[in-house]
Amino acid sequence: MSTTPIDLSATKAAFPDRPLQITAKTTGRKGWTSAILFWLVGAGIFALCYMAWLPDLVNDFRLRDTAEVVRDPRSRVTGKCRSQLFIQTCEADLSYRRNGKTYTYNIAYLMLGVGDHNVVVMADPQNPDQMTTDLGLDQFWNRMLVFLGLVAAGVACGAAGIVGVRTCRREGAIVSALTNRRLYPVLIPVVSGTGRTKPIKTVNADGSAQKWEFAENDKPLLLYGDAYVLGVSANSDGNGPVFPMDETLARLKLEKDERETLLKAVYSE
Question: Which of 111, 138, 157, 168 is geometrically suited to a Cys-Cys bond with 42, CB 3.0 to 4.6 A?
């Protein structure tokens, strides 16, 4: 741990001279819960993209050079578009007759808003069952852009889930390395955050940064103008794994009198 001019002699003197257990509900459970939620959201985005909008994008890409306006006066486009903020969704059933046979197709578009539009049916003359609309072809790259944005959002959700799991495993490993050992109080420099509105970011002894999240009722024990968070280490000099403490030291398994004595010492520094 980086050397500081601050003396923790009172806290060190009050610290129990015996193996201690870290009882903190670290972000492990929270990390797994967040990861699963992110993965579910990402999977939902991918499923929706695959089932709702990808088929029409593939269909329109194939028809972009061959589709022609259907001349059948009985051709119909039955559906509607909805706009929310700058996003527009359209769903419609297309139908027309050719050589005594009726062809139908369902379309679903998601795009940046394009306003009102008179939609007409288009089809490949050589493959009359392959249908689209002039709106779909005109706004193909618009739709593709939105589609790729959603895919990117799905990928980001998956990545966030992986980060959550890595954080969970990292903190779990730290807790395992420190629990049931003689622990020493150390000051961990805080780079940013207060733990109240966003995670705190600290600096390890090797100079690497580390992020810690705290629940609403599990605020970090910040000292000296929030420049440090009180932590524990298996080494008196703070080298090796460290784990930050909360304001009530509930993260340590202590006797009632030990907790009271230790808190009094900490806040007297």
Answer: 157
Residue 251: count of CB within 10 angstroms of its CB: 23
Q: Using an 8 Å Cβ cutoff, are 65 and 77 in contact? A: no
Taking only the tens place, the pLDDT of each residue in 131-169 is 999 999 999 999 999 999 999 999 999 998 988 788 778
Instruction: State how far the alpha carbon of 48 is from the alpha carbons of 12, 51, 253, in Å.
Output: 57, 5, 47
d(CA 115, CA 125): 29
- The closest alpha carbon to 170, from 216, 211, 218, 220, belongs to 211
- 16: tokens are 């129990």
Query: Which helix (H) or strand (E) element contains residue 176?
Result: helix 140-178
Mean pLDDT of 63-86: 92
| 110 in Cβ contact with 135 (< 8 Å) | no
Structure tokens at 222: 């910040």
Strands (DSSP E) contained in 101-236 are 101-112, 121-124, 127-133, 181-182, 184-192, 200-203, 209-212, 222-223, 228-233
Cβ contact 252:22 at 8 Å: yes
Helices (H), 6-128: 9-14, 27-48, 54-63
Task: Classify 133 in phi/psi space as left (phi over 0), alpha (psi -120 to 50) or beta.
Answer: beta
Structure tokens that stand for 35 in this block: 């990861």
